[in-house]
Amino acid sequence: MREKNLVNLVKPLYAKKDKMHNFSYIFSHILRIKKNLLMLRTSFEGLNMQRLNFILYFHGLKKLVDENKQ
């Protein structure tokens, strides 16, 4: 999934979060983690960056994901 599409998918899910967990705050956090992953990826063969991007955007939504596993 393209990153722009991923952002459009998860952004509304952060709408009801408090100020410290809203999308603007989380997005800057995601970009910092992604920057570190890009630096580390040369050390790890076979990293699936598309899967990691997906996980990055949803990591702040663990409770939502757990509630909607089915």
How would you characterize this protein structure?
This protein has one domain (3-67). The radius of gyration is 13 Å and the shape is globular. The longest helix is centred in the middle third of the chain and has 18 residues, at 23-40. The protein has four helices and no strands. It has helices at residues 3-10, 23-40, 49-58, 62-67. With 70 residues, it is an all-alpha fold. Helix 1 (3-10) runs parallel beside helix 3 (49-58).
Which tags fit this structure?
single chain, 70 residues, mainly alpha, 4 helices, 60% helix
Structural domain count? 1
Total helical elements: 4
Tally the beta strands: 0
Distance between the termini: 21 Å
Main sheet attributes: strand count, strand direction, barrel closure: none
Strand percentage:
under 5%
**Oligomeric form of this entry?**
single chain
| Secondary structure: helix percent | 55-70%
Identify the overall geometry.
globular
Low-confidence runs (pLDDT<50, min 5 residues)? none
Series of secondary-structure elements, N-terminal to C-terminal: HHHH
C-alpha Rg (nearest Å): 13 Å
What is the arithmetic mean of pLDDT? 81
Structural class: mainly alpha
